[in-house]
Amino acid sequence: MKEQAAASVPLVRPVRVLHLEDDARDAQIIAYKLKAGRLACDIERVTDKAGFEAALARETFDLVLCDHNLRDYDGIAALKLSLSKQPDTPVIMISGTLTEDEAVDCLRGGATDYVLKQRLQRLIPAASRAIREASEHRGLRRSQADLRLRDLAIDAATNAIFIVDAQAPDQPIVHVNRAFEQMTGYGTEESIGRNSRFLQGPERDQPEIDRLRQAIATGAQASVLLRNYRRDGTLFWNNLQISPVRDEHGVVTHYVGIQSDVTELKQYQVELEYRANYDTLTGLANKNLLGDRLTQAIAWANRVQGRIAILYLDLDRFKIVNDSLGHAKGDALLKRVAERLKHNVRESDTVARLGGDEFAMILNGIDDPSAAAALAQKVLDDLQQPIRLDGHEVFTGASIGVCIYPGDGPDADCLLKNADTAMYRAKHSGGNQLCFYTVDLNANALERLRLEADLRRALAMNEFELHYQARLTLGSGRSTSVEALIRWRRGESGLVYPAAFIPLAEETGLIIPIGEWVLRTACAQARRWADEGHTDMRVAVNLSTRQFRQAALVATIASILEETGAHASQLELEITESVAMHDPEVSRAVLQQLSDLGIAIAIDDFGTGYSSLAYLKRFPIDHLKIDQSFVQGVPDDADSNNIVRSIIALGKSLGLTVIAEGVETEAQRAFLTVEGCHEMQGYLHSRPAPAAGLAIGEPDLPALGAR
Ligand code: C2E
Ligand code: MG
Ligand code: MG
Description:
- By secondary structure, the chain is of the alpha/beta class.
- The protein folds into four domains: 2-137, Response regulator (Rossmann fold), CATH 3.40.50; 159-269, Beta-Lactamase (2-Layer Sandwich); 278-456, Reverse transcriptase/Diguanylate cyclase domain (Alpha-Beta Plaits, 2-Layer Sandwich), CATH 3.30.70.270; 462-693, EAL domain (TIM Barrel, Alpha-Beta Barrel), CATH 3.20.20.450.
- Helix content is 45%, strand content 22%.
- It has 26 helices and 26 strands.
- The chain has an eight-stranded mixed beta barrel with strand order 18-19-21-22-23-24-25-26, surrounded by four helices.
- It is elongated.
């Protein structure tokens, strides 16, 4: 086997053999043996020390054959000379008479082998083996030298480098270089044996880490940017490249990680990004970011079929401030304006400065253009307030253009342009106002705004009044209660009915003070009637959703009763089914507290809200008012008849007083009387009227049938 291996050593050139032999015949035989074997070789023969020395000095040989018994020279000395001159070249000693001791001396002296002249058939395998082993040794030494060089190179590298064992559990670091220690602050001992993730500190879910894991799982290269932490806790941005190292079978045995600290670059990038997207003076979004956000908002609106509003704002008197107080004050003013704008919108909305004294806002998810108008008005009011700048009181004020998506433009550019156009219209109309891009919206929104402002004024100017409509017993025709209904005496518009303003009051929250006014006025009236001797006269007051939901409702009512001196038994409250059913558990608790005060509760407009009577049974209610839409149908419409009949029956079975609303005809009254309805209310008897016009306390109201 050895022979085979030896014979198969690939040689690209003939083997150079130096042969020291003073016997010509032996030299010939040996040369013949070598040539006859399959060893391609060039043989240089020398016969003495001088020739040997000269040859060794001249060139490097692949093999030295050295006769042990020379006439004028010592074989062992020749061996030593050869090894000293060419340590990598193997020497085979050849002798006719080698004793065992001499053979041992040869091998101790560094010979690779020895061959007896009588057994020259060993020469070829011995030579081949010697040459092969020498070549392997040379290779090994070269690779050891290479490795040392590589270690030195890794250590001298300016990039931080670490090597990971890919096969060991949890892939520990097995080597780090000096730059790694300097960059991370972790020494070799602290790093080796740990997985390199310790550099991530607490930030284990960085987006790029997944890419790193994926690369490791598939044995690929990767370059990732990570937020890493030094030993002292400071953050650095690590641009990490990992490359797999494979063995001769292609299996990944190691990973080499090369780190560069790109913190400064990253900070610069962050700064650049900030400058690209934000206004440096105010910290608001700039035009660029506004465009992005608007495009996103449009995509959102398309997805959910929602609406967005774009407000374009320009200060009315900025130039005056800038010119008279100087640029520094001008800048300070812009900052203050930015704060006020931000203060007025939700976190999800965007406020941007477009340059100079121009700003824009994106309002996401507005239900109605009027909501945008209301916000714009709030901003205008806010900017009407003086701004104090180092002792100066500055009045700025602004003009706002409003655009709605969809409707006023298909994309961000167009919407901004149209909002700008609308802003100019506002400015040309005298400033300090808002203007919609779409003229119709303008009219509607402005009307609503005016209505809202007028409602506020109405409250302050006492323009509301209460009318009362009597409720009477169907049997006796006696009236012991009235329903208070609000009216608004609005300047030239005359009397305005609740349907025209209660919804807006509800939306804006104005219903709370208005409702309180109604309760106070109604209770004061009840007290007045009691003082006039009508102690059993009751007033029913309607409560809207928002009123009923206010936390302080029970306390407010109790204090109004106290304040006016009306008795709780004189007050009734009407709520609709939908108000009661909105959050039934809360409603039940509130109604119970009111009922405990001694106040009667009526369910208004019953039959329109689809609630079940069985459910209402759980509420502490006293009266059921059949909605006028059903009453209107009787007695001619069979369906209405059935509905009214069953409401009366069910109400009675629950022990409630059943009241029919909107009774306008004798036929209706007759039907209701036959069906056993308890009370009625409607134009047939009387229309709502101011307290002064009511015939209170008359035993049998005579107006039956006469309206
Ligand atoms: P409601 O509580 O159901 O009041 C009955 C409405 O029917 C009143 O309208 C009344 O004028 C009208 N009405 C009375 N008899 C007849 C009739 O025979 N035929 C017809 N067609 N209508 C009749 P009004 O005063 O316009 O009030 C409308 C609604 O506004 C009320 O409905 C109530 O929900 C609300 N409302 C009125 N005043 C107040 C208030 O002070 N606060 C609150 N929150 N809501 C109120
Ligand atoms: Mg009512
Ligand atoms: Mg009603």
